Amino acid sequence: MLFNSYEYIFLFLPAVWLLYIFLQSFRLVSAAMVWLVLASLFFYGYWNPAYLPLILFSLVINFVIGKGLEKKRSKPLLVFGIIINLGLLAYYKYAGFFLETIHQLSGLNMPVVNIVLPLAISFYTFQQIAFLVDVYRGDTVPYNLLDYALFVTFFPQLIAGPIVQQKEMIPQFRRAGSRLFGEHLNRGLFLFFIGLFKKAAVADSFAIWANDGFSRPEQLTFVESWITSLAYTFQLYFDFSGYCDMAIGAALLFNIRLPINFDSPYQALTIQDFWKRWHMTLNRFLTNYLYIPLGGSRHGIIRPYTNILIVFLLSGIWHGAGWTFILWGFMHGAASVVYRLWKRYGFRLHRSLAWCITFLFVNAAWVFFRADSISDALFILKRMLSVHHLNLTMITGHLPEIITLLIFLWICLAASNSNRLITEPILPARTIIIAAAASVLSLLFLNRVSEFLYFQF
Fold it and tell me: How many other CB atoms sit within 10 Å of the CB of residue 44?
């Protein structure tokens, strides 16, 4: 069931919300939590009921290990829990890629493995690894099985994040819903429909241009290669931004605040600033549970840069089982190292030049992220550099696309982040009008329902 589907918007979400507020109105907090768990499991099983046992197994085994770590902070038990989680993720997500790579490198006949990736496994695996580490560190709040089940399965953020921490969610689940009809409801609806507009009207429109270009890289002209790369850059931006808005908005309807996960990343002036704005909770996870345990910025000069490369390589692998994702991760790791060296030696760039370099690098890296192969990505990048082929006919023939891309680039740079709009004490009339218009326009595009891009990760 997709956030941007009629079933979710007009059936599932209203039904779950109505019974939830009914239970909360009588202060039946535990019953309301049970209802949310059951609704979340239905939401997950709606995609493919065959994977319900997997998420339930993962939930129960991590709960048991967590309780064991509460009684005794045993490092071997923590390592065992992490291995269990990574083992499940490795089998379902990387077994096929691993065997195919061995076959390509060695020529050995490896068995064909056709494993369908269970939805959300990357997200709930990382979330539960963070939970186990937090329990080991003594950085959790008291919880029972019901608390933990809702923490893992809460449907607004189950499929593609944000990746949340136990201590920031369980106290909210246990809070009575006294403000359900107040500001959270208004702000939740505003965010949800703004996000729906970003996904249905904007991202899916850019997807048409991006899909066309990436399907025929060898036929692209100089202008078409730029239209293709930028179309995907904006598709991914509005797709993920829209998902984050809809997730936070849906959670607010239940009086739950999810952490902000997206903060206008194309306004970043450095690659480090970009990663503080893009998928912010994944960056938090990688920093707190990988970069710092590896030694962080301690232990000399070389070690921190090595740690950065390791973190970004693993980030690339986490996003997808393919060499294009690994190269994308390496590119961002290398860029982060270069930026830190640049900063270390006191170099400075004008803000405009700094933004231009950062944006062009991110756009080029997204080509690898999207392309079917490294060779396809290199071909597109080669065409993007073939400026000597540019002529007036190319420009005039694609003038509508060029103008549209420039308009949305301006929007990315000038518009306020939607999460900042809801911090105002009272939503102004213009904001409410924008949300209403966005909701109406979005519904007109629901006939072309498509998955969010981050669902594949």
Answer: 23
Q: For residue 428, say if its preceding peptide bond is cis, omega within 30 degrees of 0.
A: no
Share of the chain above pLDDT 70, in %: 94
Give the number of residues written for the chain. 457
Q: By residue range, what is the domain housing residue 59?
A: 6-173
Cα angle: 73, vertex 76, 78; to 5 degrees: 60
pLDDT over 80 at 394, yes or no: yes
**Residue 231 contacts residue 206 (beta carbons within 8 Å):** yes
Residue 345: half-sphere exposure toward Cβ, Cα within 13 Å: 7
pLDDT of 301 > 90? The answer is: no
454's enclosing H/E stretch is none
What amino acid is encoded at 79 in this protein? V
Question: What is the rounded CA–CA span in Å between residue 165 and residue 84?
Answer: 19
Task: Report how far apart, in Å, the C-alpha atoms of 161 and of each of 3, 146, 223 are.
Answer: 13, 20, 35
Amino acid at 441: L
pLDDT tens for 77-111 read 999 999 999 999 999 988 878 877 776 777 767 66
Catalytic residues: 319
**Coil, strand, or helix at residue 21?**
helix
Q: pTM of the prediction?
A: 0.93
State the Cα–Cα distance between residues 2 and 158, nearest whole angstrom. Answer: 12
Is 258 in the same domain as 110?
A: no
Q: How many angstroms separate the Cα of 195 from the Cα of each of 245, 419, 457?
A: 5, 11, 20
pLDDT, tens digit, 9 for 90 and up, residues 111-158: 666 777 888 999 999 999 999 999 999 999 999 999 999 999 999 999
**Number of domains composing the chain:** 2
Same domain, yes or no: 155 and 277: no
Mean pLDDT of 377-387: 94
Among the three residues 147, 173, 199, which one is the final residue of a domain in this structure?
Answer: 173
pLDDT at res. 433: 75
Q: What is the pLDDT of residue 424?
A: 65
Q: What share of the chain is helix, strand, coil (3-state, %, to 5)?
A: 75, 0, 25
Angle between helices 222-253 and 399-414 (to 10 degrees): 40
* Secondary element (H or E) of residue 296: none
Asked whether residue 286 falls in the same domain as residue 385, the answer is yes
Query: b/e map of 31-41 (b: 16 or more CB within 10 Å)?
Result: ebbebbbebbb
